[in-house]
Design brief:
Helices cover 45% and strands 16% of the residues. The protein is an alpha+beta fold.
Length: 298
């Protein structure tokens, strides 16, 4: 595990601790049962894609500070850089699947494919699939076969087979995905909102207004706002504020930066304004949030 940059206090897993090592890490898959390091109740992040397939577990998964219920046959999808932690009141069984961005690009070589893939799309509001018992039983053989291929280090074309199984598995899961914020009655609103959220991810640290975003998307600010409201029930400015707030939360628990330094990094005019913004939207002060969610010493 790497501690990341010198000012980074949050555990950051640069390389999968399960099976990968160094620059050779591309993929690994392990069973969750019987591991002393599972679950991981402390906030951490990964530089790789992380899938938690929990056949038996009950608890809470906190992903980017949003709570999701853990129950049997839950499948969680965590993209690189996302902050998460999870707990279970019962012994957990299932699989952890980790793969480098390079491995993902081997499966989905086109940029459009990555954008359209629902689970790791930043515009997705549902990073979890709750499978029925029947669906879980139907998909488990794919996982088992993939695990057998991966475990046999001497087998010819092993990684090709693992990649093929992973592509089949993700495609099967993709068929089951039913996002809350997408519906057949509003495809244009959804498409515009997703483009807007992708642009926010690229530009939220700049001092762009809703009008600036709308101009870049070649629509009026009213049309953009209407599309966002129809899709996610929020205004365009609220989505921008949500992303700035998320970055503030990440910096507060990931780094040793002071509140003033974070305020200036996020382009607030002064720390007092940043503190008022944070309290208004997070319902707590930056200092109290940092004390509550600071990573434990390990």
């Amino acid at each position: 595990m790497s501690a990341g940059k010198p000012d980074d206090a949050l555990p950051n897993f640069e390389v999968s601790e399960f099976g990968g090592s160094g620059n050779a890490f591309v993929f690994d898959l392990v069973r969750l049962g019987g591991r002393g390091d599972i679950p991981r109740p402390f906030f951490h992040r990964h530089s790789y894609y992380h899938v938690l397939w929990m056949t038996h577990a009950r608890g809470v998964h906190v992903l980017d500070f949003e709570n999701f219920e853990i129950k049997p046959n839950s499948v969680f999808f965590i993209a690189p850089g996302q902050v998460h932690s999870w707990t279970s009141s019962v012994a957990s069984t299932g699989f952890a699947i980790n793969f480098s961005p390079e491995f993902f690009l081997q499966m989905y070589p086109r940029a459009d494919d990555l954008v359209e893939f629902p689970f790791f799309d930043i515009a997705n509001s549902d990073p979890v699939l709750y499978l029925s018992a029947a669906q879980n039983v139907e998909l488990l053989p794919l996982l088992e076969e993939m695990a057998q291929e991966y475990d046999d280090a001497g087998r010819a074309w092993r990684h090709d087979m693992v990649r093929a199984f992973m592509l089949m598995l993700l495609t099967r899961l993709r068929r089951l995905h039913r996002p809350r914020d997408r519906g057949p009655a509003r495809p244009r609103s959804y498409s515009l909102t997703k483009r807007f959220k992708l642009m926010i991810e690229q530009r939220f640290l700049e001092s762009g207004s809703v009008q600036d975003y709308a101009a870049s998307l070649c629509v009026t600010d009213r049309r953009l706002n209407d599309a966002v409201k129809a899709t996610v029930g929020k205004t365009a400015s609220q989505l921008i504020q949500d992303r700035v707030l998320l970055e503030a939360k990440r910096l507060l628990i990931q780094s040793e930066l002071g509140i003033a330094e974070i305020a200036y990094r996020l382009n607030f005019a002064d720390p007092a304004y940043f503190s008022r913004f944070f309290k208004k939207h997070a319902f707590t002060t930056p200092g109290d949030f940092k004390r509550t969610f600071a990573a434990p010493q390990r």
